[in-house]
Design brief:
With 293 residues, the chain is of the alpha/beta class. Helices cover 33% and strands 13% of the residues.
């Protein structure tokens, strides 16, 4: 494999290769100051688009550190591994998908996961499908039903950026020393040590009973799951791990983490189908008690 990037260019910008609902690119200026100046290894157990990972890599803050990126979404993790290992194959196939793009083609590709042999399709083709759907679907949303079938409609884009080869090559380089695992966030407890940094960005607790947008896998992430995450957060804090957690500004979350420092931040809402209902909303950043400034 040959990475077609200038490895000597310290100004290279590394960024997510997929759009991700709830992604943190717009909040990095509020998150970075809350991180410890010094830490050992780095963990993102709900990696999603990996905005914080790519930003820290861009700033040189992950140099010589072990990096662990987890997610329960098997198609997302397969795509990360293909970007890491086979960027040229992926780009070549994405160019083909770009040429074929149409409404009919979109729904044909989306329907792949309705077939019994879906998991027998080559990993890099499934990764191509993942990026293609992400770049052409409604608002970059990833959502599945209880059968783990993608059910997002096509987006209204005149010229979607289906294949950004520079972003993919740069992401591949950034991922070379990362351990990428399709596993539960709870497995962070197996790998983490004192002074490591863990950033949790889980599916957010819904603002209302009808506003749940957590189906990025076939698994729900509601009251029970949020309480289980809290136990892991507390366990890490008790082990002197640097831990930071993003979530929704709700009484449930604020009460659950009442013994920790809660910072209110403003985020843009992009996923509402009505343009007039998009805008600034409050979220929370919850910090463990280990000297996070």
């Amino acid at each position: 494999m040959t990475l077609r990037i200038n490895l000597e260019n310290i100004n290279t910008k590394y960024q997510p290769f997929v759009k991700w609902v709830g992604g943190k690119r717009g909040l990095l200026s509020q998150i970075i100051p809350l991180l410890p100046k010094e830490f050992n290894n780095y963990f993102e157990p709900f990696v999603g688009g990996g905005a914080l990972f790519f930003e820290l890599f861009s700033q040189g803050k992950l140099k010589d550190k072990d990096i662990y990126l987890f997610d329960i979404n098997s198609e997302l993790i397969n795509t990360y591994n293909m970007v890491k290992t086979y960027p040229e194959l992926l780009i070549k196939e994405l160019e083909k998908f770009k040429q074929e793009h149409s409404k009919e083609f979109y729904y044909e590709i989306r329907a792949w996961d309705r077939k019994d042999d879906f998991l027998k399709i080559d990993d890099f083709l499934r990764a191509t499908r993942f990026i293609y759907l992400n770049k052409t679907c409604f608002n970059g949303l990833y959502r599945v039903n209880k059968k783990n079938q993608n059910n997002v409609p096509i987006g209204n884009y005149k010229n979607p950026n289906i294949c950004d080869s520079e972003v993919i090559y740069n992401a591949s380089f950034a991922l070379q020393n990362a351990t990428i695992l399709n596993t539960s966030y709870k497995d962070v407890l197996k790998y983490v040590s004192t002074d490591d940094l863990v950033y949790f960005d889980p599916p957010y607790y819904p603002l209302t009973e009808t506003a749940s947008f957590t189906s990025y896998s076939e698994f729900d992430f509601l009251d029970k799951e949020q309480k289980e995450l809290f136990k892991v957060f507390k366990s890490l804090n008790d082990r002197d791990v640097n831990v930071l957690h993003s979530n929704s500004y709700t009484d449930f979350i604020k009460n659950l983490y009442k013994d920790f420092q809660i910072e209110e931040i403003k985020a843009n809402r992009f996923i509402n189908s009505k343009a007039n209902d998009r805008g600034k909303i409050l979220e929370v950043l919850i910090k463990g008690n280990k000297g996070i400034i």
